[in-house]
Amino acid sequence: MKKILLLCLTLLLSITLAACGTSDDSNTDNNAANDSDTNENANDNNEDANTEDENTDDANTNGNNNDAAENDAVDLTNASLSVEDAISAFQEKFPDTSVSSIQLDEERGELVYDIDGFDDSTEYSAEIDQSGKIIAEEQEQQDADDRYEELMLDDYITAEEALSTASEASETEGITARAWSLEFENGSPVYEINFEDMGSQEVDVYIDAESGEQLHVEVDD
Question: What is the pLDDT of residue 42?
Fold first, then answer.
């Protein structure tokens, strides 16, 4: 009888210990799962915060780049190579030619003249940098119906005067002049002054090269 009682007690103790062990293992597993979820949530929060910081940095960088581009706009009135010297370089390359149009604008951060000219049988064009070097050129035979007119700079206002007049137009307030050109339109020499800002607003002001009067303004939003 005592042996049976002792055996029953031993069996009961074994079952109790086994149950306790299972409970501890379950608690351990639950704790590990909770720790894993906590770590994942913390990582997600860190990633979201880092993404927001990166987006903010990108926005600031883009804003700074736009401001720098606006501030770094080349001053059209401060070209180191004059119009007369640019024409001389053109006619030295293409002797006995007449000039039919002149343009000054910015290319890769530098001011460049683009000049077109002609003689009895051929039309010419050249791009000239501020050192007076021809960086691109082209020539081709005239067509039978081509008509050209020669610019006479001594009879016109200067490009600087045309820029000054164009800047007085109310439509150009707060916008930077990016380029100017001089060529014949409807038989008359006309300056076209192009204003453009970083927001893609564009304004063209047309100036009579002989009288210096503003002809009209075109706005392209």
Answer: 46
Q: Which residue has the tokens 């401001």?
A: 67
Report CA-CA distances (Å) from 96 to 3, 99, 183: 133, 10, 19
d(CA 192, CA 181): 5
pLDDT at 63 over 60: no
Sign (positive/negative) of CA torsion 180, 197, 107, 85? positive
Taking the chain, what is the end-to-end CA distance rounded to the nearest angstrom?
A: 107
Full-model pTM:
0.67
Structure tokens at 24: 């501890």
- Please, which residues bridge with residue 207 across strands? 191, 214
Whole-angstrom distance, CA of residue 203 vs CA of residue 181? 14
Question: Which H or E run includes 181?
Answer: strand 176-185
Distances (CA, A) of 168 to 131, 173, 177, 207: 31, 8, 12, 12
Query: For residue range 124-157, what is the model confidence (pLDDT) as tens digits?
Result: 999 999 999 999 999 999 988 888 999 999 999 9
